[in-house]
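**User:**
If convenient, please work through this fold.
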Amino acid sequence: MSKLLTNFGIAGVMDGQSDPVGIKISDWAIEVDNPSVTSGSKATISGTPYVVFPKTGIGAQDMYVYVRNTGVGGNMTPNAAAQCIVQIEHLSGNNVNVAELNVGDHFFAPVIKDTGITVTYAGSAVTNFVFAYFKRS
């Protein structure tokens, strides 16, 4: 078993709001088993979903999953047409879109067993995305 430390913070002032925003989560450890990480980078293809991990096999266990849209050339250049959808696929056959990622957006969540994750083309431009998943202890 390994531990991964995570840090997350949001801070700033929003127009029209009197109080500043301040959210900070630090030193949150997630426990993972070996293999502790699998990762990669892909480009979306119109009409072809990419299976990050299937709902059977590796998906038969609890996982942490991370997906980030890195843009058309993987260079984080904003492009309103370069979107991708993160979809949860349950063993029962019910599929649910859980996130639409613009360039720079990311998705991180614990995912229960018997659930797969796919990323699909959503905009009118091909985009690149990176992913990683960790086997939850």
Remarks:
- The chain has a mean pLDDT of 85.
- Strands lie at 2-12, 21-32, 38-43, 50-53, 63-71, 84-90, 95-101, 106-111, 115-121, 128-135.
- The longest strand covers residues 21-32.
